[in-house]
Amino acid sequence: MTDAFVYTAVRTPFGRYNGALSAIRPDDLAAHIITAMLARTPGFDPARIGDIIFGNANGAGEENRNVARMAGLLAGLPVSVSGVTVNRLCGSSLDAVLQASRMVETGDAEVVLAGGVESMTRAPWVLPKPNKPFPAGDMTAVSTTLGWRLVNQRMPKEWTASLGECNEQLAEKFGISRERQDAFALRSHQLAAQAWDAGRYADSVVPVPDTELTRDEGIRANSSLESLGKLKPAFRTDGSITAGNASPLNDGASAVLIGAESAAEQIGGAPLARIAGRGVHALTPQEFGFAPVEAANKALARAGIDWSQVAAVELNEAFAVQSLACVDAWGIDPEIVNTWGGAIAIGHPLGASGGRIVGTLAHRLVQEKQRWGVGAICIGVGQALAVVLENTSVA
Asked: What are the two backbone dihedrals, phi and then psi, of residue 322, each rounded to the nearest 5 degrees?
């Protein structure tokens, strides 16, 4: 067994639903981010990539079911470079990174290109196939953008509640107020804007050709508690979750180059961080927002450290309420969480978010000269993934 390292990580700016990236096909977004990553390592022979593993939550449209393979071909990689697409919904690209790290650790590959892509704008409507030809009645087109679709009637109704309703239940369970959620959302926008202004993302975000988007499109630097407080609840008339304290719908792509220590010379640079621990956990489907708690605890245990040693946390902000519930449960200093902004501001293109989290966490550890960091993401239908990174340059 050998260690697996993050060598480089890049992503596109995340575009808003029907926004600046809406005209770009998801396979083209994925191909672009692969090309951009390889441009960072000009001396590296792409034929040495052991596999491309990309995450994607909606494979029903222009992704053509296996967007990893399609993107590799569109990016001009040698046809010998294989590709596989994984789907763990919101955790898809983090799962891709974790699978890549296992390949490296076991010696199945020396270098693996992981990442993910999602165009929520371009996710198609689908029609169920009729049980008999020429049905006399109408058929309803179903959106594949987000959430449950074509639900199996054998599923208990409490499991198939909307994502927002599930998080309203979390707010009730843990007594997390609307005011606290709005304050968390405001912090996300403020920190994201500050990070961009300070150049924190200069080395890790690459524009998409034929677009004018240079930074994440959903960041509202002028947001305020007053403006957030005026938004109406989105899921319950008396609820606390609004469009302002939940992540939006987005388009974007991310990529992470994972390799063994022996790959440093061929890649042409030292790694950013070592992948030190992995964790997966599941709860009842309606409790998905709280699942990162135990996933991160498992990852820490496998890394052989505890929360007292962690200096940086990247937690996907699917909803402010679930993020607050997780931070409370961990008992950590909230000030180490998402210090460059989170998904409420930056965006959450489902299949790309895990790669963003890994990349941001690795770059934070390097720029802030910290040793240990945790990345975690909640996943619809009751799951979560987590990773522990170590900046070995300060070990």
From this structure: -70, -30
CB-neighbour burial class of residue 104 (10 A; exposed 0-12, middle 13-18, buried 19+): buried
| Axis-axis angle for helices 92-105, 353-367 (nearest 10) | 70
| Catalytic annotation, pick one of 90, 166, 281, 326 | 90
The one catalytic residue in 32, 281, 363, 378 is 378
Does 378 participate in catalysis according to the annotation?
Answer: yes
Q: Which of 189, 281, 348, 363 is labelled catalytic? A: 348
Domain boundaries, the chain: 4-121+248-390
Which residue is associated with the tokens 């239940």?
169
* Nearby residues of 250 by Cβ (< 8 Å), 6 or more positions away: 14, 15, 16, 17, 118, 120, 217, 218, 347, 348, 349
348 given a catalytic annotation: yes
For the segment 321-378, what is each residue's pLDDT rounded down to a tens digit? 999 999 999 999 999 999 999 999 999 999 999 999 999 999 999 999 999 999 999 9
* Cβ contact 112:81 at 8 Å: no
Give me the chain's average pLDDT, please.
Answer: 97
pTM of the entire structure? 0.97
- Where are the alpha helices (H) located in 116-218, listed in sequence order? 163-174, 178-197
Please list the alpha-helical segments (H only) found in 106-176.
163-174
The enclosing H or E element of 111 equals strand 111-119
Nearest Cα residue to 241 out of 179, 164, 318, 169 = 164
| CATH number of this structure's domain 4-121+248-390 | 3.40.47.10
Length of the chain counted residue by residue: 395
Angle at 252 between CA 289 and CA 261, to 5 degrees: 85
**Catalytic: 166?**
no
SS (H, E, C) 33-100: HHHHHHHCCCCCCHHHCCCEEEECCCCCCCCCCCHHHHHHHHCCCCCCCCEEEECCHHHHHHHHHHHH
